[in-house]
Amino acid sequence: MSTLYALEHVTVRYGARTVLSIDHLEIPAGEFLAVVGPSGAGKSTLLRLLCFLERPTTGTVRYDGRTWPDGAPLDVRREVTLVFQRPLLLDGTVEQNVAYGLRLRGEPADERVAATLELLGLSHLARARARTLSGGELQRVALGRALVLRPRVLLLDEPTANLDPHNVALIEEAIVALHREYGTTVVIVTHNLHQARRLAPRTAVLLDGHLVEDGPTDVLLEGRGTDPRTRAFVSGEMVY
Ligand SMILES: Nc1ncnc2c1ncn2[C@@H]1O[C@H](COP(=O)(O)OP(=O)(O)OP(=O)(O)O)[C@@H](O)[C@H]1O
């Protein structure tokens, strides 16, 4: 697999505080990577770097062999879609929400929107107002807005936090379907170690802004990681 992202000596600082510090991280094209770590570890910050919403304070984020010190151009930013932890939807119908990105890009929407709603079990809600939906339905609409674009990279920030098993299963199946069908590169931030195991062959562990370890998910999550902090984190012994 070719390298899609290469992070070298990356730091992100807010004032005097360094919230992220990654010496080296490569993400191959087509990979499904999980990022785990305690609250405040820098996981969302990493996702913002990967979708060019934020620039590193020092170091480089190379994408497809290129880097843009003044910000990535629109066509590159459009290859990468981030689904936020707390999604903001338009005050319209489910269908309008899912169609929005395609319309913005001037691409035909109807068939793709219908297929996406179907994939996410939302067809019967196509004309419902977004503001009338349950939390699980809202999360599925937010994911639908991303999936319909068939992005090259899908970044997910806790896409199933606080959802019931039915919604979790629908969301996971839709993500896996996109990944399989289009070879989409997926990076999922999750607090749910079982979810990382179900979905991602490789996991990166972030603690206190540092990439402590990355490797095969089953090895790390079975407590066989090489770093003692990884073992403490996955066994729930870590106090934070
Ligand atoms: N714009 C900002 N200005 C100042 N500090 C920030 C800013 N954004 C994030 N931080 C701080 O950076 C640290 C890392 O935040 P981040 O959201 O990346 O963590 P996280 O691992 O995603 O946490 P969680 O699991 O709770 O979402 C936190 O301590 C946060 O308070």
From TrEMBL:
Pfam families in the cross-refs: ABC_tran (PF00005)
Keywords: ATP-binding, Nucleotide-binding, Phosphate transport, Transport
Protein name as it appears in the record: ABC transporter related protein
Keyword Nucleotide-binding: yes
Domain ABC transporter, residue spans: 5-233
One annotated GO biological process: phosphate ion transmembrane transport
Keyword Nucleus: no
GO cellular component: membrane
SUPFAM superfamilies: P-loop containing nucleoside triphosphate hydrolases
Record-level Gene Ontology MF annotations: ATP binding; ATP hydrolysis activity; phosphate transmembrane transporter activity
Transmembrane segments: none
Family matches, as InterPro entries: AAA+_ATPase, ABC_transporter-like_ATP-bd, ABC_transporter-like_CS, P-loop_NTPase, PstB-like
PROSITE patterns for this protein: ABC_TRANSPORTER_1, ABC_TRANSPORTER_2
Gene3D superfamilies on file: P-loop containing nucleotide triphosphate hydrolases
